[in-house]
Amino acid sequence: MAYYYEREERIKLITMEVIVTQENLSFALNNTSRVTSTKAGLPILGNILLRTDKSRLLVAATNLEVAASHRIGAKVTKPGSITIPARLLNEFIQNLPKEQLTLTAKDNKLHISSSTSSSTINGSPDDEFPELPTIDDKKAVKYTITASDFKQSVSQTIIAASGDSTRPILTGVYWHSFEKKLYLAATDGYRLAERHITGTSSSVNAVIPTSTLQEVLRTLRDETVELDVLFDETQVTFRLDEVEITSRLIDGNFPDYRQLIPAASETNFTINRTELIRVIKIASLFARESGGGIILNVDSDKNTLTINSIASEIGENSSEIPVVSSGQAASVSLNSRYLLDALNVMSSDEISFGFSGKLAPCVIHEITKSPAYKHIIMPLKS
Fold first, then answer.
1. CA dihedral 77, 80, 85, 91 (to 10 degrees)
2. Which terminus of the chain faces fewer neighbouring Cβ atoms within 10 Å, N or C?
């Protein structure tokens, strides 16, 4: 009788018991632990939430701005939940052999056992953990985007977003509908990137923090085919495979950037992208004293582009590249790092440049059958 009484009392103390694979748990922890926070006064934000969900285990974390959750397959012996310090749990699980693990929550401790080891990590009850944000699918604006289009579109625009926290609206990427198309755009006041991603009959106007988009990019796997993006008034949710990432949107109105894009240019030329990258890298070595500034000279008669850079203490450099040009011969001074950032996220072999004198914006396009990306760089004052 005493044995059965003790066994019954032990079962009562267990608040959760599940069996999972080390591979699945490690992958889920790696995806979610990146959004944990070490904010003073809120130590619970440094924890991972483990909670059973029917025949799956929910692994989740939040820093109150972004929440990430991942559901993995599990054999649930006893439904329940617990929160555990994220960094310790993630590193511990990563170093275990690839086999089945039994997770047992008891007395606010997580017991982790495998065929060769047994460990206990102190945790906290989930009632201290913030409520995970949700989005109403019926009221949300939803887009289904291929993983390849998402990667390329975000990578091409995020480079132009500002890092200046005093202008928060410019620290994100602007998702918006215009003339039945969905666009992504970003600017820091010195450059502007715009990418058309898909057609749409819905209306959306939202600025997503760059940190959120970077987190989604890190979470995408090679085998991910597509993802859903859902917007409501204040949040955006990304759903990909078994992962869900929800983030607050940035408050404010994004600038009407289209008025900054020139309708036409007086000087235009097309050039091989790879060759231009090579020459700009060389020129930038001599442009460090001038804040990365290099001078582009277009000779329409000779169909050449000459790139010059000067450093008083190092020396100077001049390189000439063949181009196909039209319009006036002209020169413009541009930031070499901004140029390289733009060229490196393009994929076409040939690109086009257009500008109208030394003070007008320089517009860069890919040369493709259906060009979807443009990058604008403001000239440097010379």
1. 20
2. N
Q: What's the confidence (pLDDT) of residue 46? A: 96
Q: What is the pLDDT of residues 277-330, one digit of tens each?
A: 999 999 999 887 777 899 999 999 999 999 999 776 788 899 999 999 999 999
CA distance 87 to 38: 11
- And the tokens for 372? 């979807």
Least confident of 33-42, 165-174, 224-233: 33-42
pTM, two decimals, is 0.92
**Contact status, residue 307 vs residue 319, Cβ threshold 8 Å:** yes
Banded model confidence at residue 17, pLDDT cuts 50, 70, 90? very high
**CATH number of the structural domain 141-255:** 3.10.150.10
Task: In whole angstroms, give the CA distance from residue 222 to residue 147.
Answer: 9
Digit-coded pLDDT (tens) for 73-105: 999 999 999 999 999 999 999 999 999 999 999
Domain ranges of the chain: 2-128, 141-255, 261-377
* Nearest partner of 126 among 180, 196, 53, 66, judged by Cα: 53
CA torsion sign for 373, 243, 60, 120 is negative
Tokens of 43: 């130590």
Q: Which amino acid is at 166?
A: T
- Give all strands (DSSP E) within 179-225, no chain letters: 181-187, 191-199, 205-209
What 3-state class would DSSP assign to 106?
A: strand
Ordered DSSP codes for 283-306: HHHT-TTTTTEEEEEEETTTTEEE
Task: Look at residue 4 and give its three-state secondary structure.
Answer: helix
For residue 281, give both structure tokens: 């890298």
pLDDT, tens digit, for every residue of 199-227? 999 999 999 999 999 999 999 998 999 99
For the segment(s) 2-128, the CATH number from 2.60.40.10, 3.60.40.10, 3.40.50.1100, 3.10.150.10 is 3.10.150.10
Q: How far apart are CA 305 and CA 97, in angstroms?
A: 58
- Per residue, the 3-state secondary structure of 147-167, as one string, reads HHHHHHHHHHHHCCCCCCCCC
